[in-house]
Amino acid sequence: MKKDFFPKLLLLLILVSIAILVSLHLGSVKIPILNTAKILLSTFPVLGEGIDLTGIDETEIFIVLDIRLPRIIMAGLVGATLSLAGASFQAVFNNPMADPYILGVSAGAALGATVGIVLGVGTFGFAAISVFAFTGAVLSSLLVFSLGRIGGKINTVSVLLAGVVVGAILSSVTNFIMMMNQDNIHRIIAWTFGSFSAVTIEEVKYGWIFFVIGIILIMSLAKELNALVLGEELAQTMGINTERTKLLVLGVSSLMTAMAVSISGIIGFVGLVVPHLMRIIFGSNHKRLMPATVFGGAFFLIFSDTISRSLLETQEVPVGIITSLLGGPFFIYLLRNSKKKTEGR
Question: Domain map of the chain by residue range?
Fold first, then answer.
């Protein structure tokens, strides 16, 4: 497994590159693949200086660089973030069913976005709703952490249960607000389905660094996560500060998930399916699993977003629907396959 790690990772990186190129090419306006490649390469330092864009329509350049590329980059960052957060939660909780939304982050974000929409902050732009969603996600995570601490320490079982309860309560509050504000139901539901249609180049320009810092920080804890999977007592005998590790992983992963959800809305199955698939291909060692999960998540969400805006000619299908349609059946297959292996022992 260790010897073929880099060839597999390189193949995954190539798939991500192909997905980006195809995604730039497809859409309501199909741009010739050669023109797409030239426009994309022209953005690279040094290499782009030798690219001649003569003969390429300025509209095509605008569509590729100012409309499609920002949402593709953001889709890749959100996919990588949700997948990595899912893998981290599965390690900390030692539960293969854990996903990035297990601590009530999605419910808190949905409530925050709903409040923002009802208050009319959308008139100030999509970013204003994102601020409300991010605030709701962070506050719900803090509430779950406070409820899940026992004797000053994080109890994973208590945190898990608190996440379920808090998520259910916040979802009920959101539904009540929707019931009392019928005129805004369509906008609220559209937000919860997930979309990258409102992503701007400014959001990518100033937001990518926060995603990258979070991803690097979580990946740096791969050794500690490997130990946690073996059990907290054994991890402590290996010199791992389990409380510090749990706090860092859960805190940073929740913050990253909150950022992702505030930008894209609630996109399911990414943080659940991708870590499982990467674990099958790359193994359970988090030193190899985490970088694979980052690229795997980016590919999955870029691919899903491409389908979401290319499937219908008249309108865009919310990306959350696409990820559920793709991820749901695959996860059922994984469960059936795991069941067969268990019964065969």
Answer: 5-337
If residue 150 lies in a helix (H) or strand (E), which one and from where to where?
strand 149-150
> Residues 41-72: pLDDT tens digits?
888 877 677 787 888 888 998 999 999 999 99
Query: What's the rounded Cα separation, in Å, for the pair 273 and 192?
Result: 20
C-alpha 124/C-alpha 76 separation (Å) is: 26
Spatial contact of 33 and 25, defined as CB atoms under 8 Å apart? yes
Q: Pairing relation of β-strands 153-154 and 149-150?
A: antiparallel
Structural tokens at position 341? 């292996």
Structure tokens belonging to residue 109: 């974000």
Q: Which two tokens stand for residue 173?
A: 């509050």
As a whole number of angstroms, the distance between CA 249 and CA 88 comes to 7
Burial of 316 (0-12, 13-18, 19+ CB in 10 A): middle
Q: Which residue has the tokens 């003569």?
A: 54
301 is written with which tokens?
């969400």
Q: Which of 13, 35, 11, 15 is nearest to 25 (CA)?
A: 35
Q: What Å distances lie between residue 148 and 55, 94, 152, 246, CA to CA?
A: 61, 16, 10, 12
Q: DSSP letter string over 275-300?
A: HHHHHHHH-S-HHHHHHHHHHHHHHH
Q: Which CATH class, in words, describes the domain spanning 5-337?
A: mainly alpha
Cα→Cα distances 12→7, 88, 193, 288, 297, Å: 9, 20, 27, 13, 10
Q: How many alpha carbons fall within 13 Å on the CB side of residue 301?
A: 34
What is the C-alpha separation between 35 and 17, in angstroms, rounded?
A: 16
pLDDT in tens, 167-225: 999 999 999 998 888 888 888 888 888 889 888 888 888 888 989 999 999 999 999 99
Q: Name, in order, each residue with C-beta under 8 angstroms of 311's C-beta and a sequence gap of 6 or more.
A: 317, 322
